[in-house]
Amino acid sequence: MYLKLKHKDVFTLIQKHNLYGVIQDMLIDLMELDHKQTIALLLEKNTISSDKIVEKLRPTQLHLYRYLDEYDKKNPKGKYHGELVKLYSIFAREKLLPFLKKSDHYPIQEALDICKKEKFYPEMVYLLGRMGNIEEALDLIINELKDMQQAISFCQEHDDPDLWNDLINHSLDKPGWPKLNPCSQ
């Protein structure tokens, strides 16, 4: 009844009477009432499996994002990282690149496809570099990000003579770019 009335005492009632096992069918309503309290409740007791929670929240991606974002902080083993890549691309772009860098538990090609679709160039550069496609990553830095300093840093990081040649040739062809002297590198 508290839930139907949208009364936040429902959380106290659940805790007081240990009603964790019966809330799985009410997850969406609880999340809409107060997503922070609901997530804290779910993560605190672990009486409902994360798979069941994800299944129940999947129709509402915002709720799923909020839950998985917090779940990953307590359980960083990578169980839902593939799904988190997609959710971060929708709801928290600023978290995406740091997440891609810290995790090895997502399908890299799917992550790249999502970033290509959304034109998330910094994330694409990182993923391409990680996949070994450093020439394509450098091309993105030069042509999409138009960041000479990042291009130089990228070449230094990968220490590949062909990359340096690509960058030098590009800088010679573009009048607005600073000229690179091959001898100074």
Automatic annotation (TrEMBL):
Record keyword RNA-binding present: no
GO biological process: cellular response to starvation; endosomal vesicle fusion; macroautophagy; protein targeting to vacuole
One Pfam family hit: TPR_Vps41
Positions annotated as CHCR repeat: 30-180
Keywords annotated in UniProt: Protein transport, Transport
GO cellular component, one term: HOPS complex
Signal sequence region: none
SUPFAM superfamilies named in the record: ARM repeat
Family annotation (PANTHER family): VACUOLAR PROTEIN SORTING VPS41, VACUOLAR PROTEIN SORTING-ASSOCIATED PROTEIN 41 HOMOLOG
Protein name: Uncharacterized protein
